[in-house]
Amino acid sequence: MKVKLAQKYGFCFGVKRAIDIAQNTPNATTFGPLIHNEMEIQRLHRDYGVSLSNTLKEAQTYQNVIVRTHGITKEDLHTLKENGINVVDATCPFVTKPQNIVKKMSKEGYQLIIFGDKNHPEVQGVASYGEDVLIVANIDELMKCNIKRRLVLLSQTTKQSEQFGKIAAWLISKASEVRVFNTICNATFENQRAVLELSKEADIIIVVGGKNSSNTKQLLEIAKAQCVDSYLVENKEELEKEWFKHKKLCGITAGASTPDWIIESVKVEIEQI
Amino acid sequence: MKVKLAQKYGFCFGVKRAIDIAQNTPNATTFGPLIHNEMEIQRLHRDYGVSLSNTLKEAQTYQNVIVRTHGITKEDLHTLKENGINVVDATCPFVTKPQNIVKKMSKEGYQLIIFGDKNHPEVQGVASYGEDVLIVANIDELMKCNIKRRLVLLSQTTKQSEQFGKIAAWLISKASEVRVFNTICNATFENQRAVLELSKEADIIIVVGGKNSSNTKQLLEIAKAQCVDSYLVENKEELEKEWFKHKKLCGITAGASTPDWIIESVKVEIEQI
Questions:
Q1: Which pTM value belongs to this model?
Q2: What is the pLDDT of residue A129?
Q3: By C-alpha distance, which of A66, A50, A67, A60 is closest to A85?
Q4: Looking at chain B, which residue has its C-alpha nearest residue A184?
Q5: B257 CB contacts (<8 Å, ≥6 apart)?
């Protein structure tokens, strides 16, 4: 099988930074998964003794707690610090930015609207910094909400730029002032643009990444719109030979939390089909 | 001919207010046309002695100068006041609002973008209050401009809400912060919505208003998109019988500067066709 990698894919700045931090803090724990990639988390545990705590209580049994790339809530951070835990902040700077915006704009009396998934830890963390915060996954959800006259709109870092613009355009027609902060991270945007191009050319697309990773799921969605035969796999074992029948060119991309060694193993496997 | 008036049409709050001001300031002059309707200006001259000065020099030969609904530039206002002229401000409050926004936001270091017509007196007046102001008539013009990272977007009061939203959505994808002030006036918006509805039903639309009136031209454009046989007339004399051949229902709307007595005379004329 002939394969072609997207022009931009995989690890972003924030993920690379977090992994460096974890490797430099051996035997610490992360509160929640450091990044949305289970195999990389296992590697950090095996090679650096960095464990995963799924609850705040569990995390507090460690001396050093690493804050995940997606950030945590203001309240949880407060609890950790109050209990004398050494907090090592691996929150992606592109996530710290919306946290600070929400904090500042909430104080200035704006109603806050976050375009994002209310179950995603990044969004929960960002929202925790404000008082009057709405979280909407799409424009239909937004239309059911009570909208005030002065609004701040921001986005989960991994959302699609086009949908964000549509939400903004709708809000503008309803409010007097809409202050829009484009908090979609550039890496996400570039990976999205690259898979869009690739999916016009390839007749099958394989997206490598965690199934709970927001940006990975966005990549799949973008690919599918152009190329129906697009699939998301976490590793080479999930590839099915059936998918590749009668296909000529397989495009490959990967989410921002997917390490190169996993992408490489998937690529080699596909080439042998 | 059967006729139907749009649910909302004609005089807006700002125009009504300006005419009241003019009627209460007999023998004054207006610097530039008070409103974009020549016949109403002639009536104010005939009945109240309110004249029209087309230049600042001419206006300064009067004791009382009325500022037109569209406002004037900061510099012209300054000159009038410095020369001891009694300035009677008939600027529509919906125009004073964007003037104040430009003044404040320019001081806060934002690049200002006005969606509007650079030759329109309202836009020239609003733009004069800022330092770093771009005026764009559409998204194509905007795409050729140098866009900064922190922007304020506002609109000429009589522009279309949908186009404004599209411009905002494009800007959001390019900048870090876009602060959008919806300065499209409600009356304009309501007249636009009403003609949209009417043009789906009627097979000919007559828009009554000044040919240099921005909001009137917008109404014509909206009507034409649904109903090809849409025409703009300033008075009943401009109606052509030819237009009404084989038509069943004529919809009528009017710009925000069009007085009721002109609309009524056009309506009566059409009914007799």
A1: 0.82
A2: 98
A3: A60
A4: B173
A5: B11, B15, B35, B36, B37, B40, B69, B209, B210, B213, B215, B216
